[in-house]
């Protein structure tokens, strides 16, 4: 057990703007008192956002799941259906455009196009769909996909990942959501996603995207049996790439959900582990601007707490989400509640753009939105029989 004074001196150095080594980060993550970690992370956040440190942001977005058919069979996934399964479905373009229209109508600014690795979908599929979305809804930001999808579509079309990225970017993709990072170190990644590309390859593709001018966020799936050292190694791998590219806008850890998948029964990450990760990410990732807290997988109270452990953003009102909720995430929220959660955590809420500019600062509660339709709809596809939901009825929800 390291000396408390030694741990505090590392935290003091980080607060003063110094860099923390991976070895020090692991010691802090394992042994630093929770409140000391949170205090240091919050001080770093305040320094980085001096002048707007009283604000915490959120976004209104919709995840559009275009297919659940997938050849990759990740063990933690409760969403996919193998090819030829009668549980597989694919949305047609009209359905996707209708969901985009609802997103615009409800004040959403971003869509996350998210789905399985369909054996028939190459670069052409994404070009066609992104171009159609941008033609009808140029105001929607397409913040979607990740390195895994790029690897899959490039192989399917017989082109390089560089060409795949150039083409989908030209067709309308604005930025990558950083999906598929899971755990980047080899041992835990192979244990939960043996058919996915390696962590090194995932980073290589994101680095290529950044070089081509397509920025991204980065993610981490916590709680599938990885060690603390492997969690810190995941952060190190991201920080090293970020030193070269500066293309990761944010880091977003989230916790494994145990229902309906092959890992059922494994220990989940606790709230304390989650908060420690938010804090250590703010302390260690000194080159990543935004650390995103979440309410979907860890609950609303933990989401509020994350804003005091280094997070500057509380995620989104997800007008639709099917992937994590299929695995058991049952928390729901809405625009008014999300604003309330941020305000009662002691911050001024602000709706943000994908690139984190403030669109609306809710500095006067009297002017808060009152639209009850802006609700997070979860598991619209995870219904009995596993077929696609015939109609979402978002506009009619109350
Ligand atoms: S996580 Fe993605 S790639 Fe893995 S099985 Fe699920 S849909 Fe397929």
From TrEMBL:
Pathway: Quinol/quinone metabolism; menaquinone biosynthesis. It catalyses: dehypoxanthine futalosine + S-adenosyl-L-methionine = cyclic dehypoxanthinylfutalosinate + 5'-deoxyadenosine + L-methionine + H(+). It comes from the Bacteria. The keyword Iron-sulfur applies. [4Fe-4S] cluster binds at residues 70, 74, 77. The keyword Iron-sulfur applies. Its cofactor is [4Fe-4S] cluster. InterPro entries: Aldolase_TIM, CofH/MnqC-like_C, Cyclic_DHFL_synthase_mqnC, F420, FO_synthase_su2, rSAM, rSAM_sf. PROSITE patterns: RADICAL_SAM. Residues 56-287 form the Radical SAM core domain. Binds 1 [4Fe-4S] cluster. The cluster is coordinated with 3 cysteines and an exchangeable S-adenosyl-L-methionine. Its EC number is 1.21.98.1. Keywords: 4Fe-4S, Iron, Iron-sulfur, Menaquinone biosynthesis, Metal-binding, Oxidoreductase, S-adenosyl-L-methionine. Radical SAM enzyme that catalyzes the cyclization of dehypoxanthine futalosine (DHFL) into cyclic dehypoxanthine futalosine (CDHFL), a step in the biosynthesis of menaquinone (MK, vitamin K2). Belongs to the radical SAM superfamily. MqnC family. This is Cyclic dehypoxanthine futalosine synthase.
């Amino acid at each position: 057990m390291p000396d408390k004074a030694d741990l505090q001196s590392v935290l003091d150095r980080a607060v003063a703007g110094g860099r923390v080594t991976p070895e020090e980060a692991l010691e802090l993550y394992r042994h630093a008192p929770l409140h000391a970690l949170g205090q240091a992370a919050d001080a770093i956040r305040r320094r980085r956002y001096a002048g707007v440190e009283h604000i915490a942001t959120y976004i209104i977005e919709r995840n559009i799941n275009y297919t659940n058919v997938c050849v990759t069979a990740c063990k933690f996934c409760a969403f996919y259906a193998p090819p030829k399964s009668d549980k597989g479905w694919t949305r047609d373009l009209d359905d996707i455009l209708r969901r985009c229209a609802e997103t615009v109508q409800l004040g959403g600014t971003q869509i996350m196009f998210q789905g399985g690795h369909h054996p028939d979908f190459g670069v052409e599929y994404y070009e066609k769909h992104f171009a159609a979305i941008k033609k009808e809804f140029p105001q929607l930001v397409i913040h979607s996909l990740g390195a895994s999808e790029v690897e899959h579509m490039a192989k399917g079309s017989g082109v390089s990942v560089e060409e795949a990225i150039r083409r989908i970017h030209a067709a309308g993709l604005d930025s990558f959501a950083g999906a598929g990072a899971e755990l980047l170190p080899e041992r835990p990644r192979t244990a939960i996603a043996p058919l996915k590309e390696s962590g090194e390859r995932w980073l290589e593709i994101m680095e290529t995207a950044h070089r081509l001018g397509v920025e991204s966020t980065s993610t981490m799936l916590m709680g599938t049996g990885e060690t603390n050292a492997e969690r810190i190694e995941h952060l190190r791998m991201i920080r090293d790439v970020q030193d070269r590219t500066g293309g990761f806008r944010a880091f977003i850890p989230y916790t494994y959900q145990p229902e309906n998948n092959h890992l059922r029964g494994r220990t989940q990450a606790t709230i304390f582990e989650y908060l420690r990760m938010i804090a250590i990410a703010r302390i260690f990732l000194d080159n990543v601007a935004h650390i995103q807290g979440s309410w979907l997988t860890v609950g609303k109270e933990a989401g509020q707490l994350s804003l005091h452990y280094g997070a500057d953003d509380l995620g989104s009102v997800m007008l639709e989400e099917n992937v994590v909720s299929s695995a058991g995430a049952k928390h729901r929220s809405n625009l008014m509640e999300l604003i309330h959660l941020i305000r009662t955590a002691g911050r001024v809420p602000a709706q943000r753009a994908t690139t984190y500019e403030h669109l609306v600062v809710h500095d006067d509660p009297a002017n808060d939105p009152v639209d009850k339709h802006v609700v997070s709809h979860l598991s619209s596809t995870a219904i009995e029989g596993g077929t696609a939901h015939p109609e979402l009825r978002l506009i009619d929800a109350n």
